[in-house]
# Entry
Amino acid sequence: MADLWQNAMDYAVAIARKAGEVVRDALRDDMKVMTKSSSVDLVTQTDQKVEQLIIQSVKEKFPTHRFIGEESVAAGEACDLTDSPTWIIDPIDGTTNFVHAFPFVAVSIGFSVNKQSEFGVVYSCLEDKMFTARRGKGAFCNGEPLKVSDQEDIKQSIIATEFGSSREPEAVDKIFSSLRNILCIPVHGVRGAGSAAINMCLVASGCVEAYYEIGIHIWDVAAGSLIVSEAGGVLMDVEGGVVDLMSRRIVAANRRAIAERIVKEIDSFSPPRDDTPPSKQ
Ligand SMILES: Nc1ncnc2c1ncn2[C@@H]1O[C@H](CO)[C@@H](O)[C@H]1OP(=O)(O)O
Ligand SMILES: [Mg+2]
Ligand SMILES: [Mg+2]
# Structure
């Protein structure tokens, strides 16, 4: 049987490449940096331009499909995942990196039908690495198959995480408490690329054993989570349950035992969900 969504995936790869070109070109220009939820939650005109480029291109080819896009939600659109085919877009994942020309910046495009992820595309545009995954068909980087690390021992692992965009003392304390617990397991090291999507691709590539974060949004991890699972990895909530991409919490790891060990060390909290409108928070 023909693969129903392969066509859409090929289209997503082509759009991500084009979007990446726009991002690369914009790095050379003067940029106007604006802020969203806090003074360190940054956005540029390129984020907005790239999101519009992706949405307009998809609408031309798939007029009935729906969208969840970081900058559209920031502009007041609902963050609703229905059973309809839905493109979940982070036009620039790693805007802080982009603003500073720190070279890990990604275009992330996830695609769900019946609330199930069908494909994920993450284009790390300064490294020129195209990460892709199609449900049931594996994960790839520039066409080469990806496989998670086979490390069983957390003490010989590298763990990725981020400090996030909240500077509320309570949230920062919890982030540091988890970080301290994990560092002192002890692990070989802790890293963060500054892009949730790239951190997940690092798990899928076997460069780090796991990535965890509280505060991410569905558009940061929709594509990356399929790339991790298709590379043989596991996803989990930070308290050990089933991952919920609207809950803003995630653990992605090479194997269940490593994810469970990390869960034990996380001082968890629950940010407002992505699918709760600001008026109800
Ligand atoms: N100051 C900040 N530091 C790190 N991540 C931030 C951040 N502000 C927003 N983020 C977002 O949070 C995610 C996880 O840390 C990142 O991938 C990034 O996505 P963004 O660049 O698309 O906003
Ligand atoms: Mg992001
Ligand atoms: Mg973004």
About this structure: The two ends are 45 Å apart (CA to CA).
